[in-house]
Design goal:
32% of the residues lie in helices and 12% in strands. By secondary structure, the protein is of the alpha/beta class. α12 packs parallel to α17 and α13 packs parallel to α15.
Length: 627
């Protein structure tokens, strides 16, 4: 299960470490213009390699045809069928996909003819996904075998007619989702509105991401699927970024498409996926309002937004500060949504490097330093994984950089916190304060000095995979903490559940609504799955790490209530007993019994090969004998 993987051409180009380190000092690569800044410090030999890499990237072979099921869905869409149009006789599933897949006549209400579809496509689709277009049947569990290619995206779900809440005469709730970038748990204490959310709502103490990297994590949020099912493992290349997400048609099956199909006004603001550029790419489906930035957004100034397809450029004045601009757009959207249910995702670039704060917060927290946890700058330990063992202790200059950067990160989230207050006020101004869920989270965590590593992410340690998830809203009692293990794959099902919409049929996650409301849930998962492909070698990736930040190889990991278990592609293994080693310092895998080792491997294998909510829930519930 940790076999070799195909990598994009650019990701095979690995400059010498010294050159990479020199290039990385204070320079973040976010767009083509900034690549030149980094290139100044790269040796002539490295430039030759980079030139070859870019030439190969420009000469990529033509893409393969989409999977058969996807081709059938696209044919139906081109013929005029659409999700949520069942009542008009042009429902994507009921009036097109179902009769094609079942070889049956359309229902009497159908108002458009079926498109011509090659019968071989139907045969291939049935072989790949037997439940595609089988109306009324529950999905079957897929055999636990490692897929050679990611599973086909499902057909876009249709709305219920009408959604349950509307059918009962109840007012459907609104959802405000604030997703930050690289925000670790240790920054929450500097955000008064978020701290108040903890007092007013519920905190998930064991919320984990499927990968501590932007695109894989955000894809899991949008689709409810693990990386091994979405096929998105990186920020760039054939298996990562916006283009890979789009080529797999994931934009058709997000929580936004489901909620919009159920009558919600939806808005996507800020950061979408790495590789999206406002001047090149139109707004994605499912969003009523679209105000999204490209790679220049990391700078927080001098960036452009695609505002419903129109490129709007912002400058370097205080009023152009990215988080504040997003706040203003979000407030307007909320007020314009009075009388209709709405769902808004505000995805800030803060506090991602280069950690740009609003000018008004540039002097905040004088003297603030990074936390000195038990793992901070630890000495070399026995049985460390090979990628970590090569890192030396951090010296005084590195310590000073970490403290300076931590202070900048705390400064940069002040505008995010102020934005949450502004959104709460906007919701109250339209009389929806008691009918709106606020959800706060991050796409991944961030280490700063732990394990002798300079600032970065991508490891399987809690610093990087365990992030905040805090929610307030109707039916949520204040001051509660949920101990169950939850993951970002659960948000798709949760948002659609709250809105009375239908989730995509092959999500891997489960709804958190019962846990939000304090209801007992039986057979909940006992472990979270984390999947990472590495090392990251593409210098155009905004998360390309400093050589001292940690850049682990491909791994799969399992985080249980009291342990973390990791299997690396290079054969290394880690096991940390969190009851006795909460800082994850001592790798005790060699001392485990053969039975325990076999149990852990079997449990991780089952999770890494699950393919829908039922199968993944069963695999995570069984977990390992050790808990």
């Amino acid at each position: 299960m940790t076999g070799s993987f195909i990598q994009g051409f650019l990701e095979r180009v690995e400059p010498p470490e010294a050159a990479v380190y020199s290039s990385h000092q204070g320079v973040m690569v976010h767009d083509a213009g900034e690549i030149a800044m980094r290139a100044i410090w790269i040796t002539i030999g490295t430039l030759g390699l980079l030139g070859a890499g870019f030439t190969l990237a420009l000469a990529q072979p033509a893409g393969r045809n989409p999977p058969a099921c996807v081709q059938i869905r696209v044919a139906c869409q081109k013929a005029g069928f659409a999700a949520g149009a069942r009542s008009e006789g042009t429902g994507l599933v009921a009036d097109c996909i179902v009769p094609i897949m079942q070889g049956a006549a359309q229902r009497p209400r159908a108002s458009k003819p079926l498109p011509q579809v090659d019968p071989q496509l139907v045969t291939d689709c049935k072989a790949a996904n037997p439940n595609f277009g089988q109306a009324g049947r529950a999905p079957q569990q897929t055999p636990a075998a490692a897929p050679t290619t990611p599973a086909s995206p499902p057909a876009a779900p249709e709305q219920r007619t009408p959604p349950p809440a509307a059918a009962n005469g109840e007012k459907r709730p609104n959802i405000v989702f604030v997703l930050t970038d690289d925000l670790a748990l240790n920054l929450v204490q500097y955000m008064p509105h978020v701290v108040q959310m903890q007092k007013d709502g519920v905190t998930f103490a064991n919320y984990f991401v499927t990968d501590s990297l932007c695109c894989p994590s955000r894809t899991s949020i949008f689709t409810g699927r693990f990386p091994h099912d979405s096929g998105i493992f990186r920020n760039t290349g054939a298996d990562g970024g916006f283009l890979a997400f789009h080529s797999r048609h994931h934009e058709q099956v997000t929580f936004a498409t489901a909620l919009q199909g159920a009558g919600y006004r939806t808005a996507m603001l800020g950061k979408y996926l790495n590789g999206y550029e406002p001047a090149k790419h139109p707004p994605e489906p499912g969003w009523t309002l679209w105000a999204v930035a490209g790679g220049a957004g990391y700078r927080s100034f001098n960036y452009a937004l695609s505002e419903d397809g129109k490129v709007v450029r912002y400058g370097n004045q205080p009023t152009d500060y990215m988080t504040d601009v997003l706040s203003g757009i979000a407030v307007r959207f909320i007020k314009e949504s009075a009388g209709a249910p709405f769902m808004i995702e505000v995805a800030t670039f803060a506090p991602h490097a280069p950690y740009v704060a609003a000018p008004r917060d540039a002097d905040a927290f004088p003297g603030l330093t990074a936390p000195r946890t038990g793992a901070f700058n630890i000495a070399h330990q026995d049985n460390e994984p090979a990628w970590l063992a090569k890192h030396q202790p951090i010296g005084p200059p590195g310590m000073a950089t970490i403290d300076q950067d931590f202070r900048k990160r705390a400064q940069s989230v002040q505008a995010v916190d102020a934005m949450i207050g502004a959104l709460q006020d906007a919701v109250a101004s339209i009389g929806e304060a008691n009918n709106t869920y606020f959800v706060f989270s991050s796409d991944n965590g961030y280490h700063m000095g732990e394990f002798r590593l300079m600032p970065g992410k991508m490891t399987a340690y809690d610093t990087d995979i365990r992030v905040p998830l805090i929610a307030t809203g109707p039916g949520i009692a204040g001051g509660r903490t949920v101990a169950e293990i939850v993951e970002n794959i659960d948000l798709h099902q949760t948002f659609t559940d709250l809105g009375g919409a239908v989730a995509a049929p092959n999500v891997d996650g489960r709804s958190l609504v019962p846990l939000l409301r304090g209801q007992p849930v039986s057979d909940w998962r006992k472990a979270a799955l984390i999947e990472h492909r590495g090392p990251v070698r593409n210098v155009t990736d905004p998360d390309f790490p400093d050589i001292r930040s940690g850049n682990p190889p491909t791994y799969e990991a399992m985080r249980g209530p009291t342990y973390v278990y990791v299997e690396y592609a290079d054969g290394g293994k880690e096991y940390h007993d969190l009851a006795t080693d909460p800082d994850e310092i001592h790798n005790t895998f060699p001392s485990l019994s053969d039975a325990d080792k076999a149990s852990l491997h079997a449990a991780l294998t089952a999770l890494a090969n699950c393919h829908d909510a039922q199968a993944c829930s069963a695999a995570a519930t069984r977990s390992a004998t050790r808990n």
